[in-house]
From TrEMBL, chains A, B:
Residues 18-78 form the HTH tetR-type domain. Pfam families: TetR_C_6, TetR_N. This is AcrR family transcriptional regulator. Residues 41-60 bind DNA. Keywords: DNA-binding, Repressor, Transcription, Transcription regulation. InterPro entries: BetI_C (IPR039538), DNA-bd_HTH_TetR-type_CS (IPR023772), Homeodomain-like_sf (IPR009057), HTH-type_TetR-like_transc_reg (IPR050109), HTH_TetR (IPR001647), Tet_transcr_reg_TetR-rel_C_sf (IPR036271). One of its GO terms (molecular function) is DNA-binding transcription factor activity. SUPFAM superfamilies: Homeodomain-like (SSF46689), Tetracyclin repressor-like, C-terminal domain (SSF48498).
Length: 220, 220
DNA sequence: GCTCTAATTATGCAAGCGTATAAATACACG
DNA sequence: CGTGTATTTATACGCTTGCATAATTAGAGC
């Protein structure tokens, strides 16, 4: 046994399955944030997670599964962040809707990194049915939550809230939020702090014909 | 000269530079439409254009240049289609804005293929400054055109149209159009024919507090 | 009809990709 | 303190990719 090892093998720690999955997903998001979906290669992700590439396949059958998990994680994180804003700030439904919109149109949801992953995914939706399903679930879930908020806000303002109109309102308000979120993520630097959130609130107030600031301003 | 050629060389025709570029861009769009940006490889594009891969580099220094040209072509095409709708249908500014919105929220602009290319691009914007520039130009151009339409529509309805409010209105209306376009491209099948366009018109009327159907309905 | 050149094909290369698999090792358990 | 196993590393394979370059040829101009 006189031979000396020319290279030392990487030392490592065993981690819990959940921890590793989370780390790998976090590393994936870092890659996407910095170089887009194309930059999220198996090797680069492993490097970020301080792990060797083979381990990824131990936790995810294929790379697409990791990417899909990362997408779901981001969407879920955004959903949770928006819901948190609801919990912490409201009893009047109009305040709740107001807080929901402001949360979606401010940090940390309105962030270029989120957009990069979202866009990369959307680009695959058309070609990959599995991802299309993942997307539609997230979209409808978001819109349903929004529709419930709108219904309550309308009722609190003494307005009718029949399903047909409420649905249409939800579609329009969803578009306003999505569109402004997009603008902010893509070119946040050309807008003043809070400008997009204010614009969104004002537009939604106009569409629903109610005030979302019931304490300060009266109902329209 | 008894030797026979084992394989015959591909016959070809020389084409004008413009024609070839257009063909290559069209082939690129086909690839993106079918399999997403990732499916738009140099070899696949060449196959579609009935050309060998090397020729692409003769017209485009690098693949990214072709992709960028394809992006610009699509955005330009959509812009032209929307502008055509303006020319063919209007003298009252409110009708013009109405037509503009309807055009952007209907065929052929609201199309999954357009979205695929757009999304793939947006995903790269964050990482590639050149593409970021290409995008911002297109975005600001679109918004400027929209802002002009809005200003005229407001004035025609006897409403004030000072720059500050007009800008904010343009941001909001742009968000509505973008958001609904997105929804329609992603899940057009869950909406009735023309539903998104109607929803968009109604939302924009509410935001601007004017009617966009001056012949039938009066101003609000 | 010849010639010259620009357009096109054909071939190959080096790099990077995702994936497979065997060897090594940390660590829980007795 | 061993021992077994789940976790992790290491290595390599086959494929695809974008790009370079040499050979060919279509077609314009004289």
């Amino acid at each position: 046994m006189t031979a000396s090892r020319s290279t030392t093998r990487k030392s490592f720690r065993r981690e819990g399955e959940d921890k590793r999955r989370e780390d790998l997903i976090a590393a994936t998001l870092e890659c996407v944030a910095e170089r887009g979906l194309a930059g999220a290669t198996v090797r680069e992700i492993a490097l970020r997670a301080d792990v060797t590439a083979g381990l990824i396949r131990y936790y995810f059958p294929a790379k697409d599964d990791l990417i899909g998990a990362a997408y779901r994680a981001v969407m879920n994180r955004m959903t949770v962040q928006a819901s948190d804003a609801l919990k912490s700030a409201a009893d009047d439904p109009r305040d709740r809707l107001n807080a929901f919109v402001k949360a979606n149109l401010g940090q940390p949801i309105m962030d270029p990194n989120n957009l990069s992953l979202w866009a990369g995914f959307i680009g695959m939706v058309h070609a990959d049915p599995a991802m299309a399903l993942a997307h539609r679930d997230g979209y409808l879930g978001f819109r349903d939550e929004l529709e419930a908020l709108i219904r309550e806000a309308l009722l609190a303002a003494g307005k009718p809230a029949d399903p047909i109109h409420t649905r249409r309102h939800a579609i329009a308000v969803n578009a306003i939020i999505d569109g402004l979120w997009l603008e902010g993520c893509l070119a946040g630097d050309i807008f003043a702090e809070g400008e997009l959130a204010e614009t969104g609130i004002a537009a939604i107030e106009a569409v629903l014909a109610i005030s979302l600031n019931p304490e300060k301003g009266g109902a329209i």
